[in-house]
Amino acid sequence: MNAGLLLIGVFFLLLILHVPIAWSIGMAVVVYMVTSSSFSLTYLAQTMCTACDSFTLMAIPLFILAGALMEGGGLSQRLIDFADSMVGHKRGGLAIVTVLACMFFGAISGSAAATVATIGVIMVPSMIKQGYSKGFSYALIAAAGVLGVLIPPSIPFVTYGVATNASIATMFLGGFGPGILCGLLLIAVSQFICRKNGWEGNGRQFSWKRVWTTFRSAIGALLVPVIILGGIYGSIFTPTEAAAVAVVYALIVGFFIYRELTLKKLLASLSSSAVTTSTIMVIVGTATALARMLTLEKIPMELAEWIGGLTDSRFLVLLAMNIFLLIVGCVMDGTPAILILAPILQPIAADYGVDIIHFGLMMCLNISIGFCTPPVGLNLFVATSLGNISFVELCKRIVPFLIALVVGLLLVTYVPAVSLGIPWIFGYGS
To answer: How many CB atoms lie within 10 A of CB 418?
Structure first.
């Protein structure tokens, strides 16, 4: 147990010292192995290699590449134009467009940071020009970026499936409920703020002709989730094969339909995807090693016994898990948090009758909220990099949206139908 405490202590000490997450995990494992006579350092290398040697994990770099190719191929602007044609004329219309655009782009990218960067570059200047405050505009895009990992396909969903052997296809289906719910809650909060400040729409008259025109232009992008999920549930291909299909589809749309994907953009997409993938895979390898060390120290079992001894109430156990995961999301990146904690917490939740898919979506939403909470909220840093706004100011402005997301989290936690409704329709659990 002392060795286990040393492992955890070194890990959190390095995090506090702002050491990159992959290095923090890896160095904590190395310290544990050096102080323990049971392992050689070669075990770390072996574990990292075997952890990454997974057919399922291939979906992550492929979805990352597909998102990058679709961004370079002009899909994001067409999605925004389509959303604007539907609701841009309403009071606070640009705020609604921003949220809808993040939901649409989330169905393409699977990444929160990519959603903030791509949609934010286009929408934030437009909102400020229309009269929206700078703080509100940047806070909204940072919060709405969370929808990028809730609307499938989603990289955290794949990670959770790998960590717990949950069905990734069912996770994709279940993600629509929490994603749409959180999107509607963000729209509701933004509408309240817009009405309070008198922020109007874009001044255009609603036109069914423009809706049809923008829809036709954006249909290439809107078909992405249809092709991916339709192929999976039509038993045509697996989630990993679906990711490969998404890459091929992105190339076809970008080069031959929209004709905006150039060789230069292709090389840039390949380069950025390689860097992102490398980072994630190092984290996957070291996090897997850390999880194994924690298991050997019987920390998961002791934690389960401790939680079970606190209360028999399912309500309180889930509340405690939510609080714990929200705190973790403030200080840890999503991928290692899921890989380390999912195998520990999911069996505990199962003991209280919580479905594995329901818990997975609850956990992923918790971790996603961490993207826009200090001190390591990635969405916050991406949003501040888009324009002249301080990190502190952004943290203040995002509070109403965080409250909305927490309300969504509580509904997802205690109303299983939000997560499982669509999977039930498709026969899950029958």
So the answer is: 21
Cα–Cα distance measured from residue 151 to residue 103, given in angstroms and rounded to the nearest whole number: 6
User: How many CA atoms does the CB half-sphere of 403 hold within 13 Å?
Assistant: 8
pLDDT digits (tens, 9 = 90+) for 227-278: 887 887 777 888 788 888 888 988 888 888 888 888 888 898 888 888 878 8
Rounded to an integer, what distance in angstroms lies between the CA atom of residue 386 and that of residue 119? 11
Peptide bond into 300 cis (omega under 30): no
CA distance 286 to 340: 10
Distance CA 274, CA 62 (A): 10
- Nearest Cα neighbor of 252 from 216, 215, 227 is 227
C-alpha closest to that of 280 among 58, 108, 14: 58
pLDDT digits (tens, 9 = 90+) for 148-199: 888 888 888 988 998 899 998 899 999 999 999 999 999 999 999 988 888 8
Cα(345)–Cα(419) distance, integer angstroms: 18
User: Comparing C-alpha atoms, which of 118, 115, 114, 110 is closest to residue 159?
Assistant: 110
